[in-house]
Amino acid sequence: MPVLLPPGALPAAYRVLCMRCVRRIGTPDDAPMEHECVWSEKSSKCAYCVKQKAPCVPILWFLEEEYAAIVAAEAATPPVPATTLKTYKEVARVADLSSAAMPALRSPFEGAQYIQGLATLAAIKDLTAAVEGLKEDTGKLLAGQARAVSLLGTVDKTTDKVGKEVSFVATAVAKVEKAVGKLAGAVAVAPRNGGKRKRGEEEEGNGENPIG
Fold first, then answer.
1. What b-and-e string marks burial along 174-193, b requiring 16 or more CB atoms within 10 Å of the CB?
2. Is residue 31 left, alpha or beta, with left meaning phi > 0 and alpha meaning psi from -120 to 50?
3. What is the C-alpha to C-alpha distance for residues 25 and 31, in angstroms, rounded to an integer?
4. How do residues 20-40 score in pLDDT, each as one tens digit?
C-alpha cells in the first residue's frame, strides 16, 4: 500500500528530507553539514525528529525549485560545502517568507487559486479607486457647471439692469425732444408787435414835418 502524503507535502522530498533537518543543516553551529536526515521504514518521522520528540514537518509543494537546488548541490562533484549550505538556507528562507505571506496551501491548485484570488482582489481595489476618482472628477465638473450657471445668472441680471437704464434714458430723451418741439412751436406762432410799432411811429413822424 502506498504511503499517503501529508497535505501540502512535496512528493519528491517526502521521507527524504524534512524541514527540521533543513534548518539544522542550514545552521552554522556544531558542524551542521555532518547532519543527515535518516528515515526508518517503521516510523513516520525521521530519526532526528524522533530524537527531538517533535513532529516531522514535510517540505511543502511550493519549495520544489529550492529542493531541486539542494539535490543538485549534494550531487555535485566535487562537492562545494558553501554552495550546499547556501541551498539549505534558501529553502528555510523561502519557507519562512511563504508561511508569513500565504495560508496553509495543500496543493499547486490551491496555490493557483490563492494567487488568482489575490489578483482579483487587487483588480477590485484598482477599480474601486478608479470609481472614486471618477466620482471626484464628476463632482468637480458639477461644481464648475454650478459656478458657470451662477455667472450666467449674474450676467442676465446685469443685462436686465442695463436694459432698464437704457430704456429710462431713451424715455428721458424722448421727453426732452417733445419739450423742445413744443418750445419751437411756441416760438413760431408768437406775434411780432415790435416791428409794426416801429413802422407806425416812423409814419407819424413823417406827417409832422411841414411841407414846403
1. eeeeeeeeeeeeeeeeeeee
2. left
3. 8
4. 999 988 886 655 567 888 888
